[in-house]
Amino acid sequence: MCDYSLQGLPNRLAAEGEDLVAHRFRTNTIGFASPQELQAIAEAQATQKRSGFWAAIKDLFIAETGPSATAVCIPPGARLSLQDIPERLQREFDVGLNEEVTFTQLTAQPYAYRDAVRFDNGREVLLQKFEPGQRAVVLSLALAEEVTDPETAYAAVF
Hints:
single chain, seven-stranded antiparallel sheet, two-stranded parallel sheet, elongated
């Protein structure tokens, strides 16, 4: 659903047909968020920005305290359409510019990144390898794969 490092952030379940974007959260984890929410947060922060040399210096040392984006969680087996896949990932995983993928979790181990996608060619990539800004559309939240491995079954339940 959501990597362990996103559990402390506001989160919600994805909706079918929803547009999502890969985002680096304040936990330094890459996960999915709503592009509309990210735009609203950016606009709010832009209006609150102070100007001037000393304000810029002060901002370098102050931790970000503004609103946090909501992590959008996706259940294992959901189908997504990845759009505008970067050339680096296209070459590494032998995929095209746009691909339909199955959302999966690679492990049930605690404190390990597990959220990933499986391409139709069987190759899997952790969301942590995505570049922020990677776009996706939720096609279906139904369990599209039969879970037979016990570790994967555990991940699918939690």
